[in-house]
Design brief:
By secondary structure, the protein is α/β, with parallel strands linked by helices. It has a single domain, classed as 3-Layer(aba) Sandwich (Aminopeptidase). It contains 11 helices and 14 strands. Strand 9, helix 9 and strand 10 form a beta-alpha-beta unit. The radius of gyration is 19 Å and the shape is globular. The mean pLDDT is 96.
């Protein structure tokens, strides 16, 4: 992991140490995980002019095709016809079309594991525009999609005995005459209506439609990951993904996976009384609410509203970036939480 360099636009001449690995399954798994982390880092480090929604979905499709996965893609106006109105609303103002990819792999008889990643390739904040300082790292707002794409690659390469599904809605949250507005009321795939309190709370909107799709079939495990809130970073900093789940047993499994991988997760509460903070007088939900408190929790509660069938669901709010270089963690895009999730899934579904 320390040997990683992002060399798309600049070459690094300094030689790097290389590990000489022994044979065997442990070494092979280590290489698979390193490659998965590199995949995620590369996607996050790409600037938005090189990685828009189409390029992100194409990268995921190419990965799936290498492993013999089935891939379905939906683009542009087709999102409305196929029932993804929130994804379309967030992405319609951009010059590059929004889209969604639905990848499936593995034996249908195996336990179903579904991953849903936020793919906002750049986030201006929309009409509630971000200040310039807050926009500098917004190329990484597709970090959740990148991390789960890397995780999916490790699962497929390791032939894990699961029926894998990866769903990624991909958009650019831009500003134009067709941008969605504060005060708009949008209908979601699940049928719930959402009042737009802030156009900069867009990630939970596209995840809502994707989670609703995932929840339409029974799956044994449903995980979503996203660079969702600044509140989570204030609470636990850049290293620790904030983890939310209503399932105590699943919480224990994921936390143990973090310990096993040396990549801890930190559980925050799904405190149901805070749902009043995202209530609306004119719709079922408000995507942001008026309260300045508990932003990571209210975002998680918003997402929970779209998962009503699946029992084992967890949401990770992560940073996907190293602000400084440390051993094994070069400055830049990071696959935060990938190894923890892989360890937990491998333990749960070991042959």
């Amino acid at each position: 992991l320390a040997a990683y360099r992002f060399e798309r636009f600049r070459r690094f001449d300094a030689g790097l140490p290389r590990l000489v690995l022994p044979g065997g399954g442990a070494a092979e798994q280590g290489v698979r995980l390193a490659e998965a982390v590199w995949t995620a880092r590369d996607l996050i480090n790409l600037p938005a002019n090189e990685l828009g929604p189409g390029e992100l979905l194409e990268a995921i499709a190419a990965l799936g095709q290498r492993h013999g996965a089935e891939v379905r893609r939906i683009h542009g106006e087709e999102l409305l016809a196929k029932g993804f109105p929130l994804v379309h609303a967030v992405g319609r103002a951009a010059a590059r079309q929004p889209g969604l990819i639905d990848l499936t792999w593995g034996d249908p008889r195996h336990p179903k594991v579904t991953l849903v990643g936020k793919g906002v390739c750049f986030d201006t904040g929309g009409l509630d525009i971000k200040p310039s300082s807050n926009m500098l790292l917004m190329k990484k707002d597709m970090g959740g999609a990148a991390v789960l794409t890397g995780l999916a690659s490790a699962i497929m390469a390791g032939a894990m005995p699961v029926r894998l599904r990866l769903i990624v809605p991909a958009v650019e949250n831009s500003i134009s005459g067709s941008a969605f507005r504060p005060g708009d009321i949008l209908r979601s795939r699940k049928g719930l209506t959402v009042e737009i309190g802030n156009t900069d709370a867009e990630g939970r909107l596209i995840l809502a439609d994707a989670l609703a799709l995932a929840d339409e079939e029974e799956c044994d495990l449903l995980l979503d990951a996203s660079t969702l809130t600044g509140a989570a970073r204030v609470a636990v900093g850049p290293d620790l993904p904030a983890m939310f789940t209503p399932d105590e047993a699943l919480a224990a499994e994921l936390l143990q996976g973090g310990l096993d991988a040396g990549e801890p997760l930190w559980r925050l509460p799904l405190h149901a009384p805070y749902r009043r903070m995202i209530e609306s007088s004119v719709a079922d939900l408000n995507n942001a609410g008026q309260s300045p408190f508990a932003g990571a929790i209210t975002a998680a509660l918003f997402l929970q509203s779209f998962v009503t069938r699946t029992q084992r669901w967890a949401h990770l709010d992560l940073f996907a970036w190293n602000p400084e270089s440390r051993p094994g963690r070069p400055k830049g895009g990071e696959a935060t939480g990938l190894q923890a999730l892989h360890a937990a899934i491998a333990r749960r579904y070991r042959p």
